[in-house]
Amino acid sequence: MTRTYEPTPPRTVAFLGLGVMGYPMAGHLLRAGHRVTVYNRTPGKAAQWVAEYGGAGAATPKAAATGADVVCACVGNDDDLRSVVLGDGGAFAGMRRGAVLVDHTTASAQVARELAAEATARGLAFVDAPVSGGNVGATNGALTVMCGGDAAAFEAAKPVVASYAKAVTLLGDSGAGQLAKMVNQIAIAGLLQGLSEAIAFGQRAGLDMNAVLAVIGKGAAQSWQMDNRGPTMIEDRFDFGFAVDWMRKDLGIALDEARRNGAQLPVTALVDQFYAELQAMGGRRDDTSSLIRRLRRA
How far apart, in whole angstroms, are the C-alpha atoms of residue 68 and residue 100? Predict the structure, then answer.
C-alpha cells in the first residue's frame, strides 16, 4: 500500500520506541515531511531506522525531545512509559513549554492521568492516544487512534498523528483514550473466541469452512476478524499480527479497570484464561486468533 499524506506544515517531532508499531509509525512521520528524531532503548534499532529513513537518532528520551513540537511514545507498558517520560533523562526534562507528548502505548488510564497532571505542572501537554490496527495498520499508515486529553493539545498534535492514521478522535479528558482502547480489546477478545468456536464447530461437522465464511461474511456475522483472520485460522496459521502476550497485557489492564469501576466482564475474564493456556502451550508470540488451537487439542 502506498500512503499519500495530507499537506501540513512540517513540525519537529521526536518518536520514542521503535518496536513493531513504532518503527513504521516514525517512518510515516518523516515521509510526511516532518523533522524526526528517534530514540530506542536498544540503540542499534534507532541506528537501523536512521539508515533506512533518514532523520536523526538520540541517546536519551530527553535528547530526542529537546526542541520538539510534538513527542510521540510507543512503548510496552506503564513502567516503560514512565521510564521514557519522567526523570532527568526523560522526555519531559527536554521538552519546551507548550510542547505536546502523545502516548500511543496501550497503558492504564491511571498512568495517563498521572502523566497529564505532571505535564500540566511543567507547562506541557499530554494526550493519551492508544491505537488499533496492528502492525499492518502501522505499516500502511492506517491506524485508528483513540485520544484523551485537552482539546487544544489534541488539535495541535492531530496533523502529526494523521501521518500514520486513518482516524484520530478525541473521546474525552485524560484517560479516555486508554479506556476506549480497553473497550476495543474487550470486544475483540469475545469476537475471536466466538469465531474460533464457529470455525472449529464447522470443521468438526465436515463443512468447507472457506465456503461457509464466504457466505456468512456477507451477512450479520461479518467482521474484520472474520474477513482477515478467518481464512488463516482455517489454515492453522498464526505467525503474524498481534501476539498473545500483548493481548494478555491489554486484557489485564481492562480487568483491573473493571475491578475499579464495577463493570462486569465475565467473558473477557474467561478468554483471558484461555490466552493463559495458549501461553502455557508455547504460543506466547502467536497471533491472537490462535485461540482456536485450544479447541483442536481434543
Answer: 9
Q: Is the dihedral angle over the CA atoms 25, 36, 156, 73 positive or is it negative?
A: positive
Does 224 reside within a domain? Answer: yes
**Which amino acid is residue 117, in one-letter code?**
A
Same domain, 132 and 248: no
Residues with catalytic function: 181
Instruction: Give the separation between CA 123 and CA 120, rounded to whole angstroms.
Output: 5
Last residue of a domain, one of 173, 202, 223: 173
Q: Is 201 found in the same domain as 148?
A: no
> For the CA atoms of the chain, what is the radius of gyration?
20
Q: Are residues 192 and 101 in the same domain?
A: no
Q: What is the pTM of this model?
A: 0.95
* Residues 153, 200 share a domain: no
Of 173, 204, 230, the domain-final residue: 173
Q: pLDDT by residue for the chain (298 residues), tens digit each?
A: 578 888 889 999 999 999 999 999 999 999 999 999 999 999 999 999 999 999 999 999 999 999 999 999 999 999 999 999 999 999 999 999 999 999 999 999 999 999 999 999 999 999 999 999 998 999 999 999 999 999 999 999 999 999 999 999 999 999 999 999 999 999 999 999 999 999 999 999 999 999 999 999 999 999 999 999 999 999 999 998 789 999 999 999 999 999 999 999 999 999 999 999 999 999 999 999 999 999 998 6
